[in-house]
Amino acid sequence: MKIIQLYCRRISTGLLVAVSLIGPGAATAYGQSRALGLEEAIALSLDHSHALKIADSQIDEAIATVKEAKNHRLPDIDVSGQYLRVNKPNMQLKIGGTQETDGEAEQGTAAPNVSQAMFGMATATLPLFSGGRISSGIASAKYLEKAAELDAEDNRQQVIQNTVAAYVNLYKAQAAVKLVEENLRSSNRRVADFINMEANGLVARNDLLKVQLQESNLELALLTAKNEEQISNYNFDLMLGIAENTPLLLDSTAVEGRATTGTLMDWEQTALDHRADEKALENRILAAHAAVTGAKSSYYPTLALRAGYVAVNVPHALTVTNAMNAGAGLSYNLASLYKAGATVRRARAREEVLNWNREQLQDDIKIEIHQAYQDLDQSLKKITVCQKAMVQADENFRITKNKYDNSLATTTDLLDADVARLQTHIDYEYAKADALVSYYQLHERAGITVAQYSPLTSQQNEQSHQQVSQ
Hints:
The chain is of the alpha+beta class and 470 residues long. It has a single domain (2-74, 132-299, 336-469), classed as Outer membrane efflux proteins (OEP) (Up-down Bundle), CATH 1.20.1600. It has eleven helices and eight strands. The protein has helices spanning 2-14, 16-22, 38-48, 50-70, 133-199, 205-240, 264-274, 276-296, 336-405, 411-445, 458-469; strands at 34-36, 76-85, 100-101, 104-105, 116-129, 248-250, 302-314, 318-331. Strands 2-5-7-8 form a four-stranded antiparallel sheet, with no helix packed on it. A two-stranded parallel ribbon has the order 1-6. A hairpin with a 3-residue loop joins strand 7 (302-314) and strand 8 (318-331). Helix 1 runs parallel beside helix 6 and helix 3 crosses helix 5 (133-199). It is elongated and about 145 Å long. The relative contact order is 0.14. Residues 1-29 and 452-470 have low confidence and may be disordered.
């Protein structure tokens, strides 16, 4: 059961990222396999990511907001018209002139017979001064547009990191299946040998039961490994936007250590200079500052250039055409003297909140960089330690096997040596995979897009390890 516990603990933990990204599910039928490199996986996930499509739509919305803010500089043109039907009212004029009773004039000229009226009006208003409300609105919209673009870049970095993590999780599952299968084949041969030796009285039945128990444990571990591999493969297919029943053949050379240079302070400064989320927050602060200016515009009057045209047609009574007017209008809302203060204070408070958020984000960035840097350092060290442990475990098994063949070691010693050998091989594969995740995580948290995908040679790996350790 030791192998089962070892495998389940590590694979199940590693799969949490992939499962959380896609959701639960398992493939019921697999189709034709497909070779998949890390570069291709990243490209597919970026193309299929719903988060990036949402970010693109948010950028389009921000662009439209900028255009809407600029439209406030353009004149407003209103056109209106009315058509009215009117009756002929009864009128009695008491002060001189004509008196009309029951529709007949007592003296003078009869009133015109008016039954309808038509009015048309067009006005144009061009703002000349509004206290900076329009210009500050445009500036704020532009900063928010830039923030939306930076948010999209931050999402892109996260998609890359999540893809690498899912790629590594599937690699771990496949590597575990391969190693358990190899060990199970060796165990099958050992059981067959022990059955023959037990039949000839060369080994005790208790020893045969021990090797058979190990064989059963490996079979259970293989079932678990294959189940986890299928789940991981299915989830990864969904992430990449390909058929869910496509078995993926990963490139083992992609899961190697990656070269990186620089001190911890260098990485911290790089993160503060390149992190998209930090730059997005900076632009939101600038937008908030512009909003403060816009709020202050309420303290100032507004000046606009106005022009209009009026046409009136009342048949049998009045016709007005070519009545145009032009001039300037000045308006000021006196209530702004005691109402605008609250608006300005709210805008300033919003700006202050964003400034403190930026301070907190910068501290969080330093913490994330420190953790990612130390994780990479640890991962590179683990590769070296696991390589040494793997060589030691192989040699220990060889020596124990020779001792057992010469009746100098017990069956328990042989089986323990075999389990230790399997564990070191799994540890080595996991260490390589974890180093790849740590490498990408450091770059992602530093705001750097990784463009090189070449694996390390052993010499480069040692140099990188020394540089990180300094």
